[in-house]
Amino acid sequence: MVQETGDSRNIQKIQEIKSRLGKSLLILAHHYQRKEIVELGDYSGDSFELSRKAAGDSDARFIVFCGVHFMAESAEILSQAHQTVQIPDAEAGCWMADMADIYLVRQVWETIAETIRDVSICPIVYMNSDAHLKAFCGSRGGTVCTSSNAETAFRWGRKRFDKIFFFPDQHLGRNTGNRLGVPPEEMIVWNPHKPFGGNSPEQIRAAKIILWDGHCLVHTRFNCDQMVKMRDRFPEAKIIVHPECTQEVVAAADAVGSTGAIVNYVDGAPAGSTIIIGTETHLIQRLALEYPDKKILELHHSLCPNMYKINLENLCRTLEGVGEVNRVTVSENVKEDARKALDRMLALAP
Q: Which of 20, 55, 110, 191 is deepest in the core (most CB within 10 A)?
């Protein structure tokens, strides 16, 4: 009961602050947030949808991003001069984003360029990355993508460049290449800790897509054995998974899509459907509550502990210090090039 009372008190304070600040406050909640956080947000969505909201709301003076740090950082890059961006927990990071840093990426870029001289390369960075990597792409004619528009971004890059260098998630990159019909031998994985990324110079020259050796720990917990067991238990079910899963899991699923696409898939399914989902557990739990006429199940329990760091207490504390607590800032020289890459992303239709 003590915890419930504390939660109720925080919810009341948050609602009072929202009412007082009105349109000058914008709370954005990623789909992977707890149910109570999503309910208090002004908008919920995947990283692409929330980026568009952050970029398009000129009324807001204070933007509070309930998600992980790279998302709030992107909102800060896209923000206008009168806006501040905050995150309830500054320690809410991302394992995948930490798998690539600007120093390693620059070294790899130089090695690739020296190996394939006179060949143009398009750097495409996943949204799950820090601002320096977005700036790296922006300054070299590349773009950012999310799981919603990765295929569009790859098509855009292939029209303009000879090769694509994609980081940090190898699985989203490979699944996108598969959807575009790129042969397996024309996609290589680059391990930054091995000479030539673990590839021969000939393989590098032949590759159309070079993939960074990174992955999402939430989505690589799913495997085909889990799918077989769930299909045995629920033969009538459809399985939909996120494109950060391995290509084997994606190939065995009935559908694949971003978090926004998963929400739309569930919404469009007829009453009585059984849908098994391979993504972060908070979204699945919320969908099960929102669609009681459908059976919504986890493929396997997989929680993102960084998303879980956002809670009612630190959201309330952030709003009580609106404009000050846990402000997210990006230096102007980094912001300029990072914005180029994000603007190119926003200009691409999903």
A: 55
